[in-house]
Structures are given as structure tokens and as C-alpha cells.
Amino acid sequence: MEYTAKQLAEVLGGTVEGNPQEKVSSFAKIEHGKKGQLCFYANPKYEQYVYTSKASVLLVNSDFQPKQEVAPTLVRVKDAYSALADLLKYVSDQKKAYRRHRGRCRIAWSAKIGKRVSVGDFVTIGKDTTVGECTRIYDNVTIGEGCKIGSYCIIYPGVHVFPGTVIGDRVILHAGCIIGDDGFGNAPQADGTWRKIEHLGNVIIGDDVEVGSNTTIDKAPMESTIIGNGVRIDNLCQIAHNVVVGDNTVMAALTGIAGSTKIGKNCILAGQVGVVGHISIADNTTVGAKTGVIGNVRKSGQVLFGTPAIDHKTYLKAYAKFKQAGEE
Asked: Where in the chain is the domain with CATH 3.40.1390.10?
């Protein structure tokens, strides 16, 4: 997208010094600025680049007094650093602006789509599904029957939301994640084979949740897999059926939670953590990278390392002895 210095000044409540029709279409650091780019100057450490910059527009504080001639057009604002943050958000919002396709998507007649919902190409929305206002659904998304999607959500390309899923407001689902597919439920048979257990439950995701790319959250055989408000889940995580994740818990990439486990509120699970099924982890627990949790964590606020998981101080002492033994 292209903006003139005058338009930028209007957006930021600033003033133009130079050519108000100077155009920019991208951003750069002040030391790298080129024609057609906008840079900003706020830190005196970088003043030398103000006089050598080849950028078309330079965002500066209103009280800046140049000591030499400045080639770029200046847009003067109260606080250049804060104004840059505002401008980046404005441009980002413009790129994500509302667009509602009808020709290349398939929306069931009984689906209820809120105001200013953006629907990309080749999207499928099933019967009796509702989508809240101002939600953005990108290309190649599939949303099954009977889903409830909140307002101001962002659903990126290639996401699959299975029937009956409930998603709150301001949820972000990154590309390729799968919400509500069958869990890994199989019953052993006398002849050594396995019988699939049908999953008739769903997934419920609270408000302000972010789910990373290619993460899978399985639905429950009965009742619900529940992700609380404010949860952050990284890429390539696996949340099995009937799991409950408490509010504001975060988990890093490649974490796997086995079925029917309950994770408390405000927990931190680092990368490649593994948690067995049918246990509970107390609130405010921190689990270090590659840790394997195989039993209940009943005391709140612990920091755990190792496999099986133990208190991190005990783990570090044990590791020191283990290392010493290997050097003898």
C-alpha cells in the first residue's frame, strides 16, 4: 500500500515539512532507508543517519532541530517512537481490511454471519454455524456445522474447525491448525486388534486465545476439551481429548498433552514438554524444556525439570553429580 506524507501526517496528527505528496510504500531502519521508504528518528544515537538517509519520508519528534540539511520530507509528531507503533498498526489493519467474498466460498444458508465479517476464497462454513462481527476468515478455511465463532477473531489460511466447536472472542488461529478432530481413542480387543472409540464431544476455546500453526486440539469422546481464556499455544503442539487448560497458561512448540489431563491457570510449559494422561498440574507451575511429567503436580508455583519431572533445584544437583560421575 502507498501513502503520501500528507496522509501519514493526518493519520498521526502531525505536520509535514517538505513535499506533502512524497510517497512511501514500505518501512526501513534509518540507516537502511531508500527511495519510497519511511524511516523514523527518535534516538539521538542515530542522528548521523538523519543527514545521510535516502528515505523519502522521515518521522521525527516535533522539537527536533536539524544541524545540517535533511533530504527526506519530515513528518513531525509529538513522539516519533509511539507514532511509529501507531502507524504500523494502522497499516496492518488496512491490509486486513474487510472483504466479503460470495463467488468463491460456500456458506450454508442457515449459517449466521455477523456484520463486517471478512471471508476469503474457498472458505466453507457449515449449517447452523454462527460467526461474530468483525471476524476475519482467510482462504481455504473449513468451519463445520453447528460451530460458534466469536467476534474479532482471526482465522488464518488452511485452518480446519470441526463441527460443534465453540470459539470465544478475539481468538487467533494460525495457519494449518486443526480444532476439534477425533482424539486418539482406541479400545484393545481380545484378538489383539483395536476398536475405534467414536468422539461425540467438542472443543471449547475461551476469549483472547492464540493457537499456533499446525497445532491440533482434539475433541472429547463425551463432554468437551476446554482451553481457558488468555491461553497461548505455540506451533506444533498436541492437545488430546478431554484436556482442560486453565486461563492464561502458555505452552511452547512441540508440547504434547495426553488425554484427560488438567493443566492449571498461569502455567508455563516450555518446548517439547510431554505430559501423560489423567493427571492434574497445579496453578502457576513452570515446566522446563523437554521435561516429562508423569504424575500429579499438587503444589502451586513449582519449577520442574527432567524426566520424570522433579523440582528444578533437585534436578540441577542430581545433574551435577551425574556429570561428575561421567568425568571420573
From this structure: 3-95
Q: What are phi and psi of 275, to 5 degrees?
A: -125, 125
> CATH fold of 3-95, please?
3.40.1390
- Quote the Cα angle for 210-213-216, to 5°: 85
* Residue 300 φ then ψ, to 5°: -70, 145
Is there a contact between 228 and 246 (Cβ–Cβ < 8 Å)?
yes
Question: 106-317: what CATH class?
Answer: mainly beta
Tens digits of residue pLDDT in 33-44: 899 999 988 888
Q: Give the pLDDT confidence score for residue 314 in this predicted structure.
A: 92
DSSP string for 147-192: -EE-SS-EE-TT-EE-TT-EE-TT-EE-TT-EEEE----EEE-TTS
Residue 32 annotated in active site: no
Catalytic residue among 32, 199, 241, 278: 241
Q: Which SS3 state, helix, strand or coil, does residue 294 take?
A: coil
Q: Low-confidence residues of the chain, pLDDT below 70? A: 95-103, 326, 328
pTM of the entire structure?
Answer: 0.74
